[in-house]
Amino acid sequence: MRQRAFEVRAAGPPDLSDVVALDDRARQGDPARLAYLHEHLAGSRCLVAEDGAAVGFVVVRPGHFFSRDFVDLLVVRAADRRCGIGRGLLRAVLGEPGTARVFTSTNISNAPMRALLASEGWVLSGSLDGLDEGDPELVFFADR
Predict the structure, then answer these.
(1) pTM for the whole thing?
(2) CA-based torsion, 18, 22, 25, 29: positive or negative
């Protein structure tokens, strides 16, 4: 893995176009995804990684999962993956104030995210069937 220099900062409404450019669904005009991103940027629940330009972002939903913070979405621009950006965003989330324990989830088929979570010490909490047929959702947690 090659390491890249980047900074992580709180994102807000002025970052919407940069965040949309990183997210495939939003870029393709999915109205629900656009509304979701707008809502979370307006609510200061998003961090962005940048190196002069936005290269990734993470959305955290405070108290969303059984009254614990939940990493809802982590996106890194395809060309910038495996450079430590996702790792830096997850670490930044854990460095922010919030609940003592933070949760996230990913499909079992998302091997890169599962590898990232394992390498960062996130603990498997369990799995959920019935969300995406044939692709269980794995739930993980980490302590701040």
Answers:
(1) 0.93
(2) positive
Calpha distance 67→49 (Å, rounded): 26
* Cα distances (angstroms) measured from residue 21 to each of 56, 105, 112: 10, 23, 21
Joined tokens for residue 105? 């989830």
Residue 85 lies inside a defined structural domain of this protein = yes
Distance CA 83, CA 27 (A): 23
Q: What does the pLDDT look like over 37-96, one tens digit per residue?
A: 999 999 989 999 999 899 999 999 999 999 999 999 999 998 889 999 999 999 999 999
- Please state the domain count of the chain: 1
Residue 96 phi, psi dihedral angles, 5° rounding: -85, 155
Q: What is the CATH number for 15?
A: 3.40.630.30
The single-letter DSSP state of residue 92 is H
Q: In terms of residue numbers, what domain contains 100?
A: 7-143
Spatial contact of 82 and 92, defined as CB atoms under 8 Å apart = no
* Inside any domain, residue 1: no
CA atoms within 13 A on the CB side of 91: 11
Long-range (24+ apart) CB contacts under 8 A made by 61-67 are 62/98, 62/99, 63/99, 65/103, 66/103, 67/99
